[in-house]
Every structure is written in C-alpha cells, then in structure tokens.
Amino acid sequence: MKAKEYVEKVKSREISAVKTTKGILNEIKKINGTYSFFNAISENLALELAERIDKNPKGKLAGLPISIKDDLCVKGVETTCSSNILKGYRPPFNATLVNNLIREGAVIIGKTNQDAFGFGSFNVNTDMGIPKNPVAFCGVSGVSPTYGLVSRYGLIDYANSLDKLGPIAKYVEDLELVLDVIKGYDFKDSTSLKQDIIKEKEVKKVGLIKETLDVDPKIKDIILKKLDEMNVEYEKVLLPKTSKYALPSYYIIAMAEASTNLAKYCGMRYGQEGKVNLPFNESFSEVRTKNFNKEVKRRIILGTFTRMAGYRDAFYLKAMKVRTLVIEEYKDLFKKYDLLVSPTMPIVAPKLSEVNKLKPRDHYMMDVMTVGPNLAGIPHMSVNAGFYDKLPVGIMFTANHLNEKRLFQVGKGL
Amino acid sequence: MTKIGLEIHLQLNTLSKVFCSCSTKQVETPNSNVCEICCGFPGSKPVLNKEAFEKALKIALALDCKINRVTFFSRKGYFYPDLPKNFQITQYESPIGINGKFRGIRIRRVHLEEDPGALVHKGSYCLVDYNRSGIPLVEIVTEPDFKTAKEAREFLRELITDLSYLDVYDKKSDFGLKADLNISTTGAKVEIKNVNGLKDIEDALTYEEERQSREVPKNSETRGWNAERRITVLQRTKESEDDYGYITETDLPVIEVSDKLLKVIKDSIPELSKEKLTRFTSQYKLSDKDAKVLSNNKRLSELFEKVAKQVDPEIAAKWIIRDLVNQLNYHKKTLDQANIKPEYMIDLLKLFEGKNITDNTTKQVMIKLIKEKNFSPKEYIEKNNLIMQSSNSKIEEWCEQAVKDCPQAVEDYKNGNEKSLNFVVGKVMQLSNKTANPDIVRKILVKLIRK
C-alpha cells in the first residue's frame, strides 16, 4: 500500500494508527535482536503520537510510521549516531525535520542503525551490532534533495557542507509526499534555502554518464535496459573532471569537516564520560580512544592532516577549488539535459565476509557514483532497476538544483 | 629597542549572544544562561547575530580599516574544556577589516568571534561555566608599533572611549577587555597570554620589559601573567607556530557587505573623542585639560553638553568637569552608578548661576545628588531654606552674634592676624545654615570689628 492510501484510510478511520503502530513495534522487537535494524525503539513516543492521530486524524502523514536515522535528534529518545561515544545521550530538542514530520501526523517509531557518524557504505562501521540488510542495497527508493532544501538543524554533523537529508521508501510517490513535508526554509539552519522546488517536471532529454558504466557488465545491462524501457531520448555524456577528481575532493572535504565535528565528543557534556581526576587532555584522549571505532579514528586523523598548516593548501583548499569545477561541469550538462543517469553503486550488495576483505580505499570507492552530485549539492534519486543474481540493482537519476519534480516524474513512471 | 603589539579581545554589548538567542546579561548561577547552541550539543547549528556583525563592522570602519566586502567564518581547532565544540568559530582568511589605523598605530585586522566559557578553579579541581560561551568578541590586532607599556595603555584607554561613543562596548568589568601582548626587546618575541584590564596590561608589559633586560629570551615563548604576584610566568617555548587547522565554517553562509549596509554603518558612526576635543575647546572655550577630561568620558560629555545648553559653559565646566569628577572619585562611584539626571544638574547650576545658593550649598547638594537616588536639588533647597541670604539686616544679625561668640578670633584679627577672620566667617555660615552670601558677610564683619 502506498503511503497516501494508508494516510487516507487512517483519516477515514478505516485503519487505526495505534493498531498499526503496535503491530510494527511488536515486529521490530521480534526481529531486531537478529538484524539490529534499530538502535532505539521509541515505543512511548510512537504510541503517544498514534493515539493523538486516532483521536484527531489530521495531517499529510496522519498515522504514517516513520523511522529516523540515528544521526537525527529526537527529543528524549537515545540518539547515538551508532557510536559508543554517544551511548546514553538523549537530546533535549527535536531536529527540525522531526518536528515537521510530527506536525503532519507521522508516528516516529525509532532510530535506525547506521555506520558510526555516517562513515561507510555497508553499515559495518557501526558500534551497535551489524545490521544484516544494509539500506543501500535494499531495492527501495531514496532521494537526496538539493543542498539546503531540508533543514539540517538537529542533524548530527558529518560534513556540514555536504550533508543532506532525504526520505527512503518503497515507492517514489512516498518520497515525494515525505519530502513535501520536511522541506522548507528554517531560520535555525543558515544554509537552508528560501527558494522552493521549481514546478517544471517534464523530462525530454537524458544524459547517460559514460564514465559510470565502467562497472560489472551485468549491472550496466540492467541500467541500459531500464533506460530503453523509459521511452525518453538519451545519449552518452562525459563528466571527465568529476569522474577523476570528485571522489578524492569529496573525501578531503568530508574528512576535514568531520574531524572538526567530532572534536566535541570528549566526555565532558554528553554521552560517555571520562575520568575527571586526569589532566583534561588525558581525560579527553581516554574517552575518545575507548569509544571511537577504527574508521572514525582513521577519518579524524586523515581529516586533521588535510587541514594542517603546510598541507591545507595542497589538500583542503585545493579540494574546495575542485568542488567549484565539479559544479560548473554539471551545470554545463544541465543546459542540454534534463536529467543524468548512472548506476547507484558500482557493485551489488556484497556478503559480510566479502566486505570484511575490502581495504579502506575500496570502501571509499563505493561512493564513486554519488560523490559528484553530493559535492555539487544537486538532487539525485535511486530507484530499483532490476535484479542481478536475485540482488537489487539501483539506477540513479541526477537533476539540476531544485529540479526534484523531474526526478519524481521519471521515478513514478518506472 | 622595545616593540609591542596587542591582540585585543572586547566583548560587544549586543542583546543576545553571537550565534544563539541567549541573553548577554551576566548571570550569577553558573550554566543557567545557556542553550544547545552555545553548549555545542550535537545537531545544533549557529545563526549569526546581525547586531554583532554590524557592530564589528562599525569598529572596523571607525579604526579606518579596509573592509572585506566578502567575508566568512572559520573553525579554529584546539581542545580545551571551556570550548564546547573544541573549535572556536572565528574569522581567519577574511576578517571584517584589515590595514587600519588608530592614534598613529597600525591596525592589522579586526574580526568577530565567539567567547569561550569560563573555568572556575576551586582548590584541587576546576569547574566550567558556559554562561560566557557565545558572547560576541571582537578581536583587534595591532602591528608592533608601541615603544612603551604606557603608550599601549594610553592607546587602549582612548580605544575604549571611542568604542563607548560607538555604542559597541560597555565597560562592565575588567574581564570585558582582554589582550594577548607581544613584546620583543633585544631577544626573541615573547607572547603574554590573556591579560585582563588596562592596569594589568601596562604592568605586565613593564615587568616583561625589565625582565628581558635581565634574561634575554633566546627562543620565542609564551608566558602567562600572574595577577597576584605581578609577574609573568613561562608557559612554554615555541618551536613552531601554533597549528589550529583552520577550515571554513560551512554552517554559516558567506556574507556580502553591500554598499547600502556599508553606508548605513558609516553614517551611524558618531563624533569620536578626537573631534570632540577640538570642538570642546572652540565651542565652549574650555582649557585643553578640561576638554580632554570631557572628551575621554562619554557619559560626562553628554551630561556637560546638556547642561551647557542652559547654563554658562564656564560654570558648567567648573562644576561638572572639576568638582563633580573629584566628588565621584572621592565617593568611589562612576557617573554610570551615580546616574545623575541632567535636569537636576541644570536646576542646581541655574540656582548657582543666579546667585541663589552659595558655593558651599552647591557643593553639598551635589554630593547628595551623587549619593542619593531620585534626589531633586530644587525641592531639597527650598525645603531646607538654603536660598542664599543677601539681605543686610539678616546677615548683620548673624554677624553680631558671631562676633559675640568668638571673642578670641576677633581679638586676634584686631591684632593683625588676617586669617582669624575666616573663623568668624565660618561661625556666620554655621548660624545661617550656610545660606549667607559670604562676600557680604566679610564686608559686614570687617565693618563691625573695626567699629
């Protein structure tokens, strides 16, 4: 059932939000021990919200169960970013996005597992038990909107200039519905946009990014087959600078920003505490050594290195310049094409045993398709394009700033 | 040759903190004037206070700086318990103003940043109070243009005066102004960190200059100022420059200073102390000394100018610039604390100008004006019959009584001791409740005694 149908049935009192919520909570409790989907189940909050909706079924998302990634603050609900260092932390405020969802009647059921502080692609860098079904390879739909369209207030920062918030759902229609609720200007996030999504949704011409087809031929075939089915005019295009430089630039900027964002976790104000009978430097080091995992430490070290005097010119400042070039390259293509297409990931979901064999660099390579749009702050959407040995393959559409309607238009037709 | 440079940190007098809406009022209870933003809680984001930015811009303009028309904020990374995020939001590549000049001293840069919290040392342990965290600070960095500690202090005093005219800074306590002091004499450059207030800044520099003549520093070093022992103490020698790993603060947008904003802020800059000094000497014919006292004190000059509109400036100058200032010093009060209403001062000095009250009464009433709240001089003078008595018959009565009461003094005067007349005059003043016109008293007394 699509979210809209469900919401209408809640509103006409055909469905009880409390009953659905209870059912979901029971199911999560039953399987979470095995799969570790959730870091926290917000049972009290969920039931309270569901009861409110049953009494007065109102809002665009009336009674709709929504789980929140663990890097978003939910007031009073343990929020850890899947890192031990934040264990026990209950934020004293809601993220703006959470407030927006609640205002439109959504039922917040819990906090989902992730890589600690968002560092990784397979959800194995978590401190909260490895989930067996990482979200990136699930065959569902997800949209990452234009940078600034959705307020980041209450998002625990990874890389401030790159972080974007967007929904994941089974249907593209659901993405559109939820995005409509969470978008909009928020004075608490100074990078939040005052402009809205533009109305134009027609897709006439699509560019297939040639460099991204250098993947497993079976993945390539699935993407091409999907494109043929779509019945739009498409041709191959080149993104040479982005293909070559986006990944290193992305990681330099992301790690530099992340290394400053993670400095605040020192055991003094929230989360895990350190010994107080030590000089502060030793106390901070003890907490950080004990509670940050290996990948987090790696990124702090790399990020700190790239912004040190003597290196910042060669790394951080250069990466910032490359970023401008990447944006220009995309902007040029959007003069001619309404959308760009690529696979979402270079591989299909690997087994845990295979992931464990990958080197850090191989992990970072997994982002090769998504770093370009993320650097440029442009919206992109991944939907299922088919299956390869029973494993889902995602197709990714990328649009110009604020052209989300084009993404949805194409996505709904698939 | 001694070279001194200052890095001055001043708290701006905005209503709210620089990146959140907490008030800037000083609060007694520790950690009670804080929020998720100034405590750096995960997920919170800064929002720039427009008033703070505009006040920093105003300072940069008043110090004759070149304004960076595109400016942004950076993160300065270092771990310290009073710094909630373990980085400070400040400006690095693009300070609001650069290359300025003030009182002949070159200004390298002016930028805006956030104040950290405060460490409270309690015996063997230490507590942190974040009430101060996020108070807007302006950092003013000078070139090493000072040759003496005294020059540096004088510069700071004049700077503070002008900042008060600009309405960007209120001197609440010495902690409102801090400075890092760079001083080199014959050896390497030494930095003295975090000295509070003008007196300590001058003393730390004086001490350091003298110390360096005894022990010439071979390497650059950072020292601290021990305010109790009045000495500088070695903190660490510097092998290399500090590395703060600056990156852009991308939670805050790049700010473009428009022509319009620049004009609005420029136009809002009032007459500053230097111009005031010139105007006071020409407009009110004040002595250089009086004009200087006045131009160096915003509240005093405001009071003076209001009074001088209605009272002879010469009289206003005597009573406000000299007597009032002396009495304030004597009673250990600032003009702010005394909070004297200009109307009351006008009432008082008009009575004096019209020869309705004596010198002595004027002085006594002024002291009451300093000490008492909502004290109306006019009412008090009327109620206590302090209007000056110039009627001869009345004064004659008091004089006759006084001559009777002070036979020895009268005798001494007759024998040529001129000064002893003062004693008799004093007696008359006492009898008249200080209302007798002293000139008339003298004339009558002389006449009476010589009879």
Mind sketching the topology for me?
The complex is a heterodimer of chains A (414) and B (451).
Chain A (H helix, E strand, L loop, with lengths): L2 H9 L5 H19 L2 E4 L1 H13 L9 E5 L26 H8 L3 E6 L28 E4 L23 E2 L2 H11 L22 E5 L7 H14 L2 E5 L2 H22 L18 H12 L2 H13 L6 H22 L4 E5 L8 H4 L4 H6 L5 H6 L3 E9 L2 E8 L5 H10 L1
Helix pairs in contact in A: 2-3, 5-14, 7-9, 7-10
Chain B lengths: L2 E9 L38 H13 L3 E2 L2 E2 L2 E4 L9 E4 L6 E6 L2 E10 L3 E5 L2 E5 L6 E7 L6 H17 L11 E8 L5 E7 L1 H17 L6 E6 L4 E7 L9 E2 L6 E2 L2 H9 L5 H11 L4 H8 L2 H11 L4 H18 L4 H4 L3 H12 L5 H13 L5 H7 L8 H14 L1 H8 L5 H12 L6 H13 L1
Parallel strand pairs in B: 12-13
Antiparallel strand pairs in B: 1-10, 1-11, 2-6, 3-16, 4-5, 4-15, 6-7, 7-10, 8-9, 11-12, 13-14
Helix pairs in contact in B: 2-3, 5-6, 7-8, 7-10, 8-11, 10-11, 13-15, 13-16, 14-15, 15-16
Describe the structure.
The complex is a heterodimer of chains A (414) and B (451). With 414 residues, chain A is of the alpha/beta class. Helix content of chain A is 41%, strand content 13%. Chain A has two domains: 3-182, Amidase signature (AS) enzymes, CATH 3.90.1300.10; 205-413, Alpha-Beta Complex (Amidase signature (AS) enzymes). Chain A has a seven-stranded mixed β-sheet with strand order 5-4-9-10-8-6-7. A three-stranded mixed β-sheet of chain A has the order 1-3-2, with helices on both faces. In chain A, helix 7 crosses helix 10. Chain A starts with a helix and ends with a helix. The model of chain A is unreliable at 131-136 (pLDDT under 50). With 451 residues, chain B is α+β, with helices and mostly antiparallel strands. Chain B has helices spanning 50-62, 149-165, 198-214, 259-267, 273-283, 288-295, 298-308, 313-330, 335-338, 342-353, 359-371, 377-383, 392-405, 407-414, 420-431, 438-450; strands at 3-11, 66-67, 70-71, 74-77, 87-90, 97-102, 105-114, 118-122, 125-129, 136-142, 177-184, 190-196, 221-226, 231-237, 247-248, 255-256. In chain B, strands 2-6-7-10-1-11-12-13-14 form a nine-stranded mixed β-sheet. In chain B, a hairpin with a 2-residue loop joins strand 6 and strand 7 (105-114). In chain B, helix 10 packs antiparallel against helix 11 (359-371). The longest helix of chain B is centred in the last third of the chain and has 18 residues, at 313-330. Chain B is elongated and about 95 Å long.
